[in-house]
Amino acid sequence: MRRLYLPGIALLLCMSGLSSSLLAEDHFLTIGGGPTADGNQVSLENNVLYFQRTLSKLGLDQKEHQILFADGNDPGIDLQVENPDRGPEDLRRMLAEIVGPSTGIRFDYRSSSIAGISGAAQPEVIEERIKELSNRLTDGDRLILYFTGHGGRERPAPQRRSSRSGRPTAAIQEDPKEEASDDSDNKEDSAKEEEASTEDEKKEDDNSRSERRRPSRPTYVGNHTHLWHHQTMTVPAWAEKLDQLPPDMPVVVVMVQCYSGGFGNLIFEGGDPKNGLTSLPRCGFFSTVPDRVAAGCTPNVDQAEYREYSSYFWEALSGTTRTGQIVAMPDYDNDGQTSLLEAHAYTVLTADTIDIPTRTSDFFLQQLSSVDRDKKLMTIHTPVELLLAEADPCEHAVIEGLSQHFGLSEQDRGKEVDEAIRDKRSDKRKVDGDVRRKQQTINGKRGEIKRALQERWPEIVSPWHPKVAQLIADEPATLEDFITKHKAYRELTEASEELHQLQADQEQLEVDIVKLERLKYWLERRALALNLPLVADEKSVDQFKRLVELESQKL
After folding, report:
1. Three-state SS for 231?
2. Cβ–Cβ under 8 Å, residues 359 and 525
3. Quick one: which H or E segment has residue 529?
4. Half-sphere exposure of 206 (CA within 13 A, CB side)
5. Looking at the DSSP assignment, which residues form a beta bridge with residue 119?
6. Predicted confidence band at 196 (pLDDT cuts at 50, 70, 90)?
């Protein structure tokens, strides 16, 4: 894609999304993979391959596309892949799950195989590539940065307990039973983020209104990406590197790691809201809000089962799913093209994931606007007719589409959503209990078979014992018959099938809850946007409009 940029109006043109056939070029930088081989799932490799196919579909495959992935071109093992042949009836898997330990029994490892990799996903390599780009790119060019890997969140210092939860917006309330986790190691984090209670701010004059931010909310500047060999880069570290690029060159980031929403801070100077908005033309789209894990990252090789942000985002832009199926490309404003914003809205509407997708202008509003009911500002409980009065086509599509999906039609849409979420959570708690009880049944049946195996072959509890290796090699049929003919095995199999169905029900309820939370998130966005002129100055309102225009670019 080529665009026209003339001296003195480059920023204006990039913000308005105008295009032409002169001078300007798009450049793509993809960074991905996990920190180690056992944290680098094959889905991350497949995400890069799908993005390559997307660019080809759009006729952009001849554009510069640098790829930094895991250990780069090192031929060593760096990728985790689930072996589909090692099913539930595989003898070694049966022994692992019944006798233990079962960790890693389903996985194999290999070297990643992406054509065109230009280096490793490491901070020094990223800095080198961006510095090299900065030396030859011009203000008229555009950089699209795609990150598909793992992420972590900042660990705030202990703060005084508050009655409010640390959600990205007031509209989304944390389920008290939920615990956050850092996806770099899949360990649950028992530390919950708390907001410090603050004294009410004194009333400021009109000239300083744009400096007011919603009090007591975490900034998430410490959110970070996990890179190869256990290295990390925080939001400010990424901002520092991107600052090297030409000052009027638009940068679009698409990031799909856990806690990716924290990178909405890239629109602020140094990646920190306390420094104010950067003058650099940046925007971004993120798989989920700053304090939640994201869907995806699986060793499963079956891409038909992938459910993650970029699968939907790229299919919206290309009209082709990662498995080759044709889909209708969204065009909510009926201009005959699909913008980045429309792809984002499409993802919010259709993605069957646990994500609450977000974008940079959401972060802008959360920092500079307010939904304080005491100040008689609009909230999610404002009649939806008023909230949508000045909404753009994407906002109409998401709010009306999700409302129709759940049969919501009341004017106080916020109240209706709250009630629907409460009902879904009640249903899910019941299913959660059924899942726990079924898992207990399965563990009990496995225990019965394990004790019988141990009575017959005492050495079997130690997988490294030479007798065990000999037994598996010489008498596999004897072992398999002993397990499958045990009286508890049929009950174990039946319970496992029932658990699978319960978990499917559990997952669907979770998806329903999250889609309702997305609706609530967008209702609050509308309220924040309408309130912005009332709580911020004219300069901030103009900055917000330009940011939305930047998000509305075409690829």
Report:
1. strand
2. no
3. helix 487-535
4. 5
5. 68
6. very low
| Residue 424 and residue 509 in contact, taking contact as beta carbons nearer than 8 Å | yes
∠ CA 359-533-391, rounded to 5°:
55
* Lookup: tokens for 235: 């939001």
Q: Tokens at residue 325, please?
A: 């199926």
Segment 466-471 long-range contacts (CB within 8 Å, at least 24 positions apart): none
In DSSP terms, 107 is beta-bridged to 82
Tell me the per-residue pLDDT of 329-374, one tens digit each, with 9 for 90 and over. Answer: 999 999 999 999 999 999 999 999 999 999 999 999 999 999 987 7
- Inter-CA distances, 445 with 96, 454, 487, Å: 14, 14, 9
Task: Count Cβ atoms below 10 Å from residue 154 Cβ, excluding itself.
Answer: 18
Angle at 436 between CA 433 and CA 442, to 5 degrees: 145
Count CB-CB contacts under 10 A for residue 67. 21
pTM, to two decimals? 0.87
Cβ-based burial of 191 (10 A; exposed 0-12, middle 13-18, buried ≥19): exposed
Contact 521, 172 (CB under 8 A): yes
Distance CA 503, CA 554 (A): 39
Identity (one letter) of the amino acid at 91? L
Q: Check: CB of residue 379 under 8 Å from CB of residue 414.
A: yes
Phi and psi (nearest 5°) for 118?
-110, 0
392 or 186: which carries more pLDDT confidence?
A: 392
Q: Are 58 and 317 in contact (CB under 8 A)?
A: yes
CA distance 441 to 488: 11
pLDDT tens track for 450-461? 999 999 999 999
Q: How far from 232 is each of 32, 124, 224, 271, 545, CA to CA, in Å? A: 12, 11, 6, 15, 33
Question: What pLDDT digit, counting tens, does each position of 74-86 carry?
Answer: 999 999 999 999 8
pLDDT in tens, 483-501: 999 999 999 999 999 999 9
Short-list 35, 126, 109, CA closest to 75: 109
